Amino acid sequence: MVATFKRGATLIWAANLLHRGKVIRARLASRCALRRTRRARKTRYRQPRFLNRTRPKGWLPPSLRSRVGNVSSWLRKLSGWSPVTECHIETVRFDMQKMQNPEISGTEYQQGTLVGYEVRNYLLEKWSRNCAYCGKGEVPLEIEHIQPRSRGGSNRISNLTLACHSCNQEKGAQSVEDFVKDPKVLAKLKAQAKAPLKDAAAVNATRYAIGNVVKAFGFPTNFWSGGRTKFNRVRQGYQKDHYIDAACIGTSGESVQIPVGFQALGIKAMGRGTRQTVRTDKYGFPKGKAGRVKRVHGFQTGDLVKLVQPKGKFAGTHVGRLAGIRATGTLDIQTGTLKISANYKNFSVIQRGDGYAFTLGQKPPGKH
To answer: Which fold has domain 96-193?
Structure first.
């Protein structure tokens, strides 16, 4: 029997890209707080700045702009390594107004944006694809009212959660306080239910920007809904994973062969250092100067290196990223949870730092 191979139907490379938007937002908030305290210590009066902070069309905050930049960076890398002929993008849309107020209609939309929405997809992301009551994953989940409609509950997104069939049936028309006996679980459930829709807002804000960046490369670009992706993935029996969703997008994802034991590359955006010249304590006062040396003996922070330690407690071969360098020639390598300091002569460069960290060992695709 001769096996036939259909070009484009077998997945040969995939990666999960982890953005650093939360890190950027936290650092900007810290910088803002430090600047605010400095301004408070300066009593000179400054005229208010009015209408001089205009933002260009399509402006995004730095935490979201980094997402777009990461996608653009990796598309540029991939197009240089392989002959990219077309791009397929999944666009998920959330109607923020409808989520908060299901009864909204007509002119009420003048206070917000009118777009399509997928409440179930949002709930899957919000509740991490697990049952809110028993915590089970990898099982069919049903949309469930935290406060039953018969007890005055609404259809608002803050009153919806996901539950497995057994929990949904057992809860029935009980209030959540009567059904969940553990006070810690109850408090966690209520807190998560009231969590803001910032993740959905981030998706809405960046979907067009990412599409425009991809189209700027000149490749034929197609846009598909998240429902189409899920239909293709479920029909083929693959489990939920970001790289599997990417392989199952649109018409090209209707028939995809993912080899047994396939491992996706994990890519984590790390940034390219800091421009802060003076370190500060938690009160904003100077604590010490940042390192003035960018590169030592050809090594710099972020490089992927191999350490061959001839003797001592950490004797052996270690592979990881440089977490720090010193002008004395001592380098710090980070390998998982282990941090080792050694002389530069025992190091060799595998890859220069490009602002990303890589890991291999993602779970292979499985069947439902």
So the answer is: DNA Binding (I), subunit A (1.10.30)
